[in-house]
Specification:
alpha/beta; ATP-binding protein; P-loop_NTPase; 458 residues
Length: 458
């Protein structure tokens, strides 16, 4: 082997160069550059939306934004389902998407921050943080929000449609809360009586609360007795007794002081981001936390439903907590997300495992829960074990190499302390039957602090 002399070769242009300038880089299609070696070509990853990292095979930047992808025709709906083991970086990816959505003019809504993971980020971007709990902020689950203001300015058939929409939302939420409290569905007769009570109060009051509904049920006016199909006060009280005790628990039981009065801090839709922090509620038990999530979802979606000309990104973290509270709650969550997806509002659902959804009490609930991931146009997979990937593949088809790649992110291959988890910050983005996009996210600048969810552990 000939060694190059220190000063270069004794020939024209053979001298030693102190600095070697990088070669010029050009991009073109393979049809134009097919004769060049080494045939460098990209993977065709989408460059529309928020930059979330580089392609793990080709190194090019990968972008993701459900609303931008919908407008560009890349997907059929702006639903995103994020699935991965704890600690693999699910919330980190979502926070990057939140920042990108804010930068593009959308409003991020974190509807039910249970830990809280998003409070620091929302405060950093100048958003609104609502802290729900006893002695803190309170949410009225029957708050009309912008829909109530819209009714006052509308006339005729348009006002009637809005009024029925508001009535349906209020009735659905009351039934969901009652189902959660009694751990059994609301009967047909009780649903009729609740609906008539809401109608009566809507005629009497400008703002409805759960104590108002309880009071009118105990009062038992003629309209409610007619709905209960009886003229006798005693028989009427027998028919509404279970309903009265259920609503009484909402006002005086373990849920007292949270949902039994007017909203103290309405959501500010002019803020760049809004986080409803319900972490204080979780200390009172799973049932109160589930109720807080349901109320937060309903209130947030109702606020958005009364606005036009603006885009939103709703984050629904810890999805399994809101679905496992009682049989039938999946139906309510499904109705909420279906409506807002049709209106073009992006929704990001996050959970650890499909096994969380398989643990629901009835097969009907399990089938509807599986529909959440099936109806989301974009599925993002973080580190998952092979058994979990087999479940996912039944809904979103995964190739063998894709399953092997995601499974390789699920656990470290060494027992040495201090090693970086192999799956942290790595994701596979799937849309339909297309091949997945493996991407690795790298934090920059202040993201290291804002996106860190392990501060309490350290």
């Amino acid at each position: 082997m000939v060694k190059t002399p220190a000063r270069g070769w004794r020939e024209p242009y053979g001298g030693c160069a102190v600095h070697v300038e990088a070669g010029a880089e050009f991009q073109a299609t393979t049809a134009q550059l097919c004769g060049l070696f080494p045939f460098v070509a990209g993977s065709g990853s989408p460059a529309i939306g928020t930059p979330i990292g580089r392609h793990q095979l080709f190194g090019e930047v990968v972008c993701l934004d459900p609303l931008a992808w919908l407008r560009a025709g890349l997907v059929t709906n702006p639903g995103v389902f994020v699935l991965g083991q704890p600690g693999t970086g699910k919330s980190t990816l979502v926070k990057r998407l939140i920042v990108g959505a804010i930068a593009s003019g959308s409003t991020a809504l974190i509807l039910g921050d249970t830990k809280p993971d998003y409070t620091m980020l929302v405060e950093y971007v100048g958003g609104q943080v609502i802290r729900v709990g006893r002695g803190l902020d309170r949410i009225n689950p029957l708050d009309a929000g912008p829909l109530g203001a819209a009714i006052r300015t509308q006339r005729g058939a348009e006002a009637e449609r809005t009024r029925w929409e508001l009535r349906g939302r209020r009735l659905s939420l009351l039934m969901a809360l009652c189902t959660l409290i009694r751990e059994a569905p609301v009967g047909n007769a009780e649903e009729v009586i609740l609906g008539r009570a809401i109608d009566l109060l809507d005629e009497r009051l400008a703002a409805l609360t759960v104590p108002d509904v309880l009071a009118v049920l105990e009062e038992g006016p003629e309209a409610l007795r007619s709905a209960a199909r009886t003229d006798h006060p005693e028989r009427y009280r027998e028919r509404v007794s279970n309903l009265v005790f259920t609503l009484e628990l909402l006002c005086t039981g373990s849920l007292a002081g949270v949902f039994d009065g007017p909203t103290t801090r309405p959501i500010d839709l002019t803020a760049p981001a809004v986080s409803v922090d319900i972490s204080r509620v979780g200390a009172a038990g799973d049932k109160l936390l589930t109720a807080a999530m349901l109320c937060t979802w309903a209130y947030g979606f109702a606020m958005v439903d009364g606005t036009t000309g603006h885009s939103y990104m709703a984050v629904m973290d810890e999805l399994w907590r809101a679905l496992r509270g009682a049989p039938g709650l999946v139906e309510y969550a499904d109705s909420l997300t279906r409506v807002n997806r049709a209106k073009g509002m992006a929704s990001i659902m996050i959970t650890h495992s499909l096994a969380d959804l398989e643990a629901l009490p009835t097969e009907e609930d399990r089938a509807k829960a599986r529909g959440f991931i099936d109806r989301s146009a974009i599925t993002v997979l973080a580190g998952l074990p092979p058994r979990e990937l087999a479940r996912v593949s039944e809904i979103t088809r995964l190739t063998g190499p894709e399953q092997e790649l995601v499974a390789s992110w699920s656990a470290p291959d060494s027992w040495q302390p201090g090693a970086r988890h192999p799956g942290r910050g790595k994701y596979l983005i799937k849309t339909g039957d297309r091949l997945g996009i493996p991407v690795e996210l790298a934090l920059v600048g202040v993201e290291h602090e804002l996106y860190d969810t392990d501060q309490a552990v350290r």
